[in-house]
Structure formats: C-alpha cells, structure tokens
Write a structure and sequence with these properties.
This protein has 515 residues and is α/β, with parallel strands linked by helices. The termini are far apart. Bound molecules: alpha-L-arabinofuranose (AHR).
Length: 515
C-alpha cells in the first residue's frame, strides 16, 4: 500500500513537472518578418553633465590617463565592443544653453561659462564640435547633434549646421577650415530643441510647433528630430503631428519626433538607491519599464492616425534608470551605480523598442559614461563595464536585422504591489538567416522552463546561448574587483527532434542563437 502511494505521488510529480514544463511558451513567427530593427535603436547619449564628458570621455591631452587628443583610450576600446551606431550630444537640457561658437577655435581662447543646468560648474568649452566629431570617428558612430532653439537664434542653428556639413564656400565654412577641418563632416541627425515643454523653454505644444517650423525651415539638415512632450502628454504628439502635416512638403520639415521615458523605482523626490534597494523597488523598476510599451503604443497610435505612411519616426532619445546619486557625489552630476536590476531594465527596454521597430527608428539610452544608466563608470584611471554594457553587447545582434513577431505565454511575477509577465522577448533574423531571440526573466526567484516554438521553420541547426545573471539582485561591477555581472556562455538549452526548450534562470537575460 505504501509503495503504491509512493508510485502514485511519483506519477503526479512527473505529470506536474510536465505540465509546468509546458506552461511557459515562446512562439517566434520566423515566417512573418516585416520590419527592420534599425541599428539606431542601439544608440547612446552624452551630455555636458557631471562626469560624462569632462573626467569621463574627455580627460584632456595632458592627462596621465592614456588618451588621443584628450579622449580616453580605454573607454573608446570598450565602447567599440558595442558597435554604437549613433551618439547624441551636447544635451539634454544643456543643449538649450549651449552656444556652439564657444566650443570652436583655439582652446585657450574659448570662453568660460557656467553650466546652469548641471551642478553650476564652470564649463571651459574645451570639448566642442571638433572634439565631439573626432570622438564619433573614433567610435565609428554617427553623430546626432541637438541645436539650441530656446536661448539661441535661427541664425545660430542654421550656421552650426552649415559649419559642420556644408561643402560650399562661405564665411562659416572658411572658419571651419581655419580651425583645421577642410572637409565637411557627414552629420545626418539634428535635433531641433530638447524637452521644450520643460528645460527647453517651458513652451506649450502649439508654440513649440510654430518655433519648430521656423527653425526647421532654415536648418538645412538630412534628418530633423522635433522635441516631444512629456511621456504622458499625448496632446503634444497630437498637436505636433496634426499641425506639421499641414506644412507644404512637411516630410522635409520633420523626420522624427522625440520621446523620453525614465524608469524611476519610487518617485521624483526620493528616487531610491541604485544598489541599496528592496524587492519592492526591483518590482517597480520592472513594472515601470514594462509600462513604457503601452505608453509608446498610445503615441504611435496618434502618429499612425496623423501620418499613416509612417514618414515621421518616433525617436526615443532618452531612456533608462534614474536613481538618487551615489552618496558624497554632486547632486547635479547624476552619478549612479549600475546593477543586475539595470541589466534587466535595459533588456526590457530594448525588447520593447525592437518590437515597436515599425515606428521606433532610434533610441538613445542616457547616458554612456558616469551619468545615469551608463555603460562605463570611471574612477580616476580605473574603469568598469556595467551590467548594462553587457546587455548592449549581447543585443547588438539585432542591429539592422528583421524583426520577428513573438508571443509569450508565461507565468506572472506576482507581488503584493501587483504583477507583471515574468518573461519579455524580442527576436530577429539577420541577413544570413540566423535567428536571435533575447529573453529577460524579471522574476527574482523563479527559473522558468520555457518551450521555444519557431513557426515557419521546419528544421534548425546549431543552437547556442549566452546569459547575464548573478546571485543577487543588486550585484554590480566594482572598481578593481572581479566582475560580478558579465556575459557568459549558457548551457541550459535542450534541442531535440525539432523541439527547443530553455531553462531561464531567475533574474536573467538570455540570448539564443539559432542557425
Ligand atoms: O538625461 C538627463 C536629463 O533628463 C536631460 O538633460 C533632459 O533632457 C532630461 O530631463
């Protein structure tokens, strides 16, 4: 009798394991590729803020830290691993106080000004247009420059574009040549203002749209990006999109509309610590990031109505986590640590942008080095690659690949504060026919065995995987210590007779490469 009961329990256990094993399913529609995931979704942002440029990218020619023309060699080497496609500069809020002519010509003659937005520090303008464009050349990345429309004139903006891009003979291009650059640079992306609802002049949507039209008419640039409203301001999107389409030849006036969305675990007054947090804050970071998708869809629905031909792209040119600054650092410098939580947030954000690739043509995480959700943190001569760095390294396989629609049937991560789907997915197929699936499991305690169905694929070849995870939710990479969070090979995949399944550990990000 006892043996029978044991056998019975054993059968129930096996059955429940099988049911559990089948509970989580990801279906990838390999036969339904339609949109390209623009490589620019993997873009970055570098503002004159805190230690992002000065004492970050740029240490100056006389620094003991190895550099080329003042630009740090180790940072360039590290960032080249990410194949950064586009870099936005000089802000952010700083863009609207920036006078570009202060940042050209002999360095010793450049004026000192005060960076009123960020810490009230003195800006010596030693990093200007030439230095930024040299940095982009070193990174092999496309520049994206935001012009000042709030405290600068139309003439300033149009002359900056002429200085940088024109091959014609003029006083402005002669100045460029006199400053050592004969040939124009190839700069396609230009932002017409930044957050003009707030730090960019506190404008309302109607007023901004008029200002945009005036500036844009005289800005002779390839791809012009308008400032969006606040993330939840759908009316701004409606006003801009509906008015801009009335401009004759509006396609030449606007090519993109900017969108900013930050993940804040608590609220703006007490944002919480980057490392010293509890599970509630982990949950809220995931929840808030996941909510970006519905918000994006609301903006995109308006854009679809007003611009059904999809001529104006949504440009998510600021996103990422924002915590309280690290203790003892300047509150205006926005220096924060970066943990496994940030890796998960990055993965969720990138999955969302990949899945919205039809309208989202660029995204720029804020902000590359030493500011907000950075790829790189520095302390004097030392440097660490953050967990977020490794997500960008893992995800670069999606750049310019065809987006594959996916469906996820998985359990939820449930807490007292609510629940979110535990798994987030995006997938793509590259020009060699290789399929890449990136999956994030935001559940901090539960491994999820997941079946992967590849629709439209009769047979697949070699499958390999890599993973980013750690024991603790707040694991991070510290100066001078062994890395706690990095990209590693992962063996937890099973591929048998055309069926593929993977054990997705708690709080992990996984890349599957399917040939
Ligand atoms: O990224 C930091 C700041 O956040 C930017 O300067 C501004 O555009 C946004 O509010």
């Amino acid at each position: 009798m006892h043996k029978l009961r044991m056998l019975f329990s054993f059968i129930i256990l096996i059955a429940s394991i099988q049911i559990n094993a089948q509970e989580n399913t990801i279906t990838i529609h390999v036969d339904q590729a339609k949109d390209t995931i623009s490589k620019h979704i993997y873009g970055h942002f570098a503002e004159h803020l805190g230690r992002g440029i000065y004492d970050g990218f740029f240490v100056g020619k006389d620094s003991k830290i190895p550099n080329t023309n003042g630009i740090r060699t180790d940072i360039i080497e590290a960032l080249r691993e990410l194949s950064i496609p586009v870099l936005r500069w000089p802000g952010g809020c700083f863009a609207e106080q920036y006078q570009w002519k202060d940042g050209i010509g002999p360095v010793e003659e450049r004026p000192l000004v005060v960076n009123t937005f960020w810490g009230g520090v003195t800006e010596d303008n030693s990093f200007g247009t030439h230095e930024f464009l040299e940095l982009c050349e070193m990174l092999d990345t496309e520049p994206y420059i935001a012009v000042n429309i709030a405290s600068g004139t139309v003439k300033d903006a149009s002359q900056w574009i002429e200085y940088v891009t024109s091959d014609k003979d003029s006083e402005v291009t002669r100045l460029r040549k006199a400053n050592g650059r004969k040939e124009p640079w190839d700069v396609k992306f230009w932002g017409i203002g930044n957050e003009n609802w707030g730090c960019g002049g506190s404008m309302d949507a109607e007023y901004y749209t008029d200002v945009f039209k005036r500036f844009s008419t005289y800005c002779n640039a390839d791809f012009k990006i308008a400032s969006g409203g606040e993330w939840d301001d759908l009316e701004w999107t409606r006003t801009f999109m509906s008015e801009i389409k009335e401009v004759p030849g509006f396609i030449d006036i606007a090519d993109g509309l900017s969108y900013h969305y930050y993940t804040i675990a608590n609220d703006w007054s007490v944002k919480g610590s980057a490392l010293d947090f509890v599970e509630e804050e982990w949950f809220r970071s995931m929840d808030q990031t996941l909510k970006m998708e519905a918000n994006l869809e609301d903006h995109i629905a308006i854009m679809d109505e007003e611009d059904p031909d999809n001529t104006i792209a949504l440009i998510a040119d600021e996103w990422g986590t924002w915590y309280d600054v690290e203790e003892g650092t300047n509150p205006g410098f926005l220096y924060q640590q970066n943990s496994l939580r940030d890796a998960l947030v990055a993965a969720l954000g990138l999955n969302i942008f990949n899945n919205q690739a039809r309208r989202v043509k660029m995204a720029n995480i804020a902000q590359t080095v030493n500011v907000l959700q950075a790829m790189i943190l520095t302390k004097e001569g030392q440097m660490v690659k953050t967990p977020t760095f490794y997500v960008f390294k893992m995800y670069k396989v999606h750049q310019d690949a065809m987006q594959l629609p996916s469906e996820v049937k998985a359990e939820n991560y449930t807490t007292e504060q609510g629940e979110v789907p535990a798994l987030s997915v995006s997938a793509s197929k590259n020009s060699h026919g290789q399929v890449h699936v990136t999956v994030a499991n935001v559940h901090p305690h539960k491994e999820l065995n997941t079946a992967i169905n590849l629709k439209g694929v009769e047979k697949f070849g070699e499958v390999s995987a890599s993973i980013i995870t750690a024991d603790k939710m707040n694991a991070f990479n510290d100066f001078g210590k062994e890395e706690q969070v990095k990209l590693e090979t992962y063996e937890g995949i099973r591929s048998k007779k055309g069926a593929l399944s993977v054990d997705i550990p708690a709080k992990s990000v996984i890349l599957l490469k399917i040939k």
